[in-house]
Write a structure and sequence with these properties.
Bound molecules: shikimate-3-phosphate
Number of strands: 5
Number of domains: 1
CATH architecture: 3-Layer(aba) Sandwich
Strand order of the largest sheet: 2-3-1-4-5
Oligomer: single chain
Strand content: 5-15%
CATH class: Alpha Beta
Shape: globular
């Protein structure tokens, strides 16, 4: 696929697909900054993702997420962007991803793999109740959306982190 030196590399995929881990390693290899959309939201608001969900609800979080994505893509310094799992839900975000000077890679994993990996960490309130059912449902509703924005798809199941990194680099 190849990436131009002025292009962002954006990783998309469900929670637990390895976006953050892979983004860090790839950014290191490319000598780039890594940008995490959840971290951007937390530093812009001074609140945690969980607090925002609890106090203001998911839609308010989604609006902050859209703003963070636009900000990250607007930076002239090419970065590796780990976009939070829900970023493809809004049409405006998918449009922003498609028109950005960026290569979008979907880290595609089966729900069975994700259930073992995506814990209901602090920033994942949506996984508090029934992670298996939630991830299965997210897989069903979102896979077409990830596919819609992706320039390349990297399958994650049965691969080590190193193998996923190599595939992303290719
Ligand atoms: C979400 C994914 C999370 C976080 C929030 C919602 C989602 O980010 O933004 O809990 O809807 O998929 P990660 O994909 O980085 O875990």
């Amino acid at each position: 696929m190849g990436i131009a030196s002025d292009q962002h590399l954006v990783l998309v995929g469900l929670m637990g697909s390895g976006k953050t881990t892979v983004a860090r390693i790839v950014a290191d290899r490319l000598g780039r900054r890594v940008v995490d959309s959840d971290a951007l939201i937390e530093s812009a608001t001074g609140r945690t993702v969980r607090q925002i969900f609890v106090d203001d609800g998911e839609e308010a979080f989604r609006s902050l997420e859209s703003a963070a994505l636009v900000d990250a893509l607007a930076s002239p310094v090419p970065a590796v962007i780990a976009a939070a799992g829900g970023v493809v839900l809004r049409e405006e975000n998918r449009a922003a991803l498609k028109k950005a000077n960026a290569k979008i890679v979907w880290l595609c994993a089966t729900p069975a793999l994700l259930v073992g990996r995506a814990t209901s960490a602090g920033h994942r309130p949506l996984l508090d109740d029934d992670p298996a059912a939630t991830l299965q449902q997210m897989h069903e509703t979102r896979d077409a959306l990830y596919r819609e924005v992706a320039d390349a798809i990297v399958l994650v199941d049965h691969r080590t982190v190193g193998e996923v990194v190599e595939a992303v680099m290719r």
